[in-house]
Write a structure and sequence with these properties.
about 400 residues, homodimer, 3-stranded antiparallel beta sheet, 13 helices, Aspartate Aminotransferase, domain 1
Amino acid sequence: MHHHQSGRHFLQIPGPTNVPDRILRAIERPTIDHRGPEFKGLGFEVLEGIKEVFQTKQPVIIYPASGTGAWEAALVNTLSPGDKVLMYDTGHFASTWHKLAEKLGLDAQLLPGSWREGAKPEVIEQVLVDDKNQTIKAVCVVHNDTATGITSDIPAIRKAIDSAVHPALFLVDTISSLASIDYRHDEWGVDVTVGGSQKGLMLPPGLSFNAISEKALSAFEKAKLPRSYWEWQDMLEANKQGVFPFTPATNLLYGLRESIRMLLEEGLDQVFSRHRRLAEAARAAVQAWDLELNALIPSEYSNSLTAVVMPEGHDADAFRKGVLECFNVSLGNGLGRLNGKVFRIGHLGDFNEPMLLGTLGAIEMGLDLAKVPHRPEGVRAAMSNLVENNR
Amino acid sequence: MHHHQSGRHFLQIPGPTNVPDRILRAIERPTIDHRGPEFKGLGFEVLEGIKEVFQTKQPVIIYPASGTGAWEAALVNTLSPGDKVLMYDTGHFASTWHKLAEKLGLDAQLLPGSWREGAKPEVIEQVLVDDKNQTIKAVCVVHNDTATGITSDIPAIRKAIDSAVHPALFLVDTISSLASIDYRHDEWGVDVTVGGSQKGLMLPPGLSFNAISEKALSAFEKAKLPRSYWEWQDMLEANKQGVFPFTPATNLLYGLRESIRMLLEEGLDQVFSRHRRLAEAARAAVQAWDLELNALIPSEYSNSLTAVVMPEGHDADAFRKGVLECFNVSLGNGLGRLNGKVFRIGHLGDFNEPMLLGTLGAIEMGLDLAKVPHRPEGVRAAMSNLVENNR
């Protein structure tokens, strides 16, 4: 892997995503005084702008931390030791969030899942109806599981909680869907939305987010899990002045400002439809190759990544290694129980048609080199699909 | 403040410090796959290299978080709810660490201090001797308090703990001394050393560190404070492979690699003596101005920043505002009980003689414009001092 590789690297893991030059240039500006007068302009712009991305009028907390930290923040700010939380095993990241909750001393129940379908609203509703004493304090769902390429129906789960007439908080992870797949914090009645910088926001990793509701803020008043770094209160107070209670990741905030500007220039609706268009073309390629999608239900197909099942007897990681070494394209590996069995194509963030076709071409050639049975018609199918959708 | 300011900004707060172009260019490289083969080279290099900066052969944990997070990490990995910890109020940052410990559910005792002197080893020793049942689990000291410009004598405090024959852990914050003032994690017998990226390491904020001892690792086994993001175990396991258990702040790690290379090229001894030389010249200027240092004891003078007491009847913040608006130089404000009463000159990180003289010149002119009584001989005195030390 240490031979020279010409041309631009294709970072087609499902995040971190390719960081556009505009953002790279923004973050390389000299660091400024985070207590000085210039900073507030930056602070106010990102704190206001990020709300538009979450489609909320409520506060969004920005942490100098990666996404895992924002998971922890969502829990420690709203819950107390031993509290029951209901989670749904839609994939590796859902199960990792579950482990994190247990480590924090929560009584976290993980509803089983096949990792090939999204969270079932009716299952959640039944558990909540059966919880007569309403001891469950929060329902935690991953909107788009980065490991499986499956999106869960957040409005339907909101409806399920409401139908059960249950007061549990609703916590949603949008790390790999935010700014790629339509997501509405306010309209969908989510209490805490967890986000990260390195996916649809097109930034390097190192920033993460909690969008919060009034109900979450009330829960905060009573929540007893110990917290300090993640605490909302100090953040909200300082944010009113456009600043942060402890040192923020200034240069990544430069990048966030540029990211928000780019997203709003394109328009969120356009961002979502571009992701959908490119994702459909990627799936058309997989189908043409005669390979299997990990996702079983079309309405749950992820528009930010596609997980492809490797045919029996072929190692996904050996194939990925070949694609990287020969064609300078990084693909995502199978995580947890999917290890070696799937590869993942990230098609989110700063991404367009030729980038997708280059990626799919490298995969098609890689399948050939690795002698994986397939029809070499994926790229052709993707092109037809893109042309058709362009008419 | 929105009129045009020509030339390079002088970021002379005591951190974030001026980020050198080499590091800015390093962090603007495209983000790579943190699970791919190229990453490990970066991972191993920073994980090994950072040990040299802490002067340790033991593991150093790297967090995608700012320094406050590494404070929290040091506590949650070694202590249990209700544990007694002994802290020393050397300044604003010591008292902030104390508040954080209380928020986490620790029984944190803060020994009073004047904010004009460092931690007294004999006071700590007496408290430990009086703690017959040895209920104090940790002694926490800030090596260099960024708010006061005072350095505490860490080897002497180690000796005090040993003289008291007390088993408490020794936790030290080096956020504003690491890579600026000589600090030896192993030789000085510290159990957890807390560091941050945005000071002597010359990086933007967003990375922080825990250097740990064998004894700290044993304490970790029994420590019961809830933790997940900060947990050492998963980090140490993953770090063996040059990777991280959750998404690292890749672009800041590019910067860290460059920072470590720069520090080792210069040589740590040279780095420390450069900071000492420039700090002495800054203090010579303060003395020549006939202004008062906040630090009272010469052996405790900080070599990374100088806090200057404003003469009675003059507002330090109004003066700072003038220096920024007229001369494009940011100075540090007085924090906590020193608010409005001191200004702070940061002279750490990527810093040299002409940068210091430019800074001191702006201050001298600013004192004149703000009609603060002083002798206009500070720059001259600094130059004489520098020339003398250069002979």
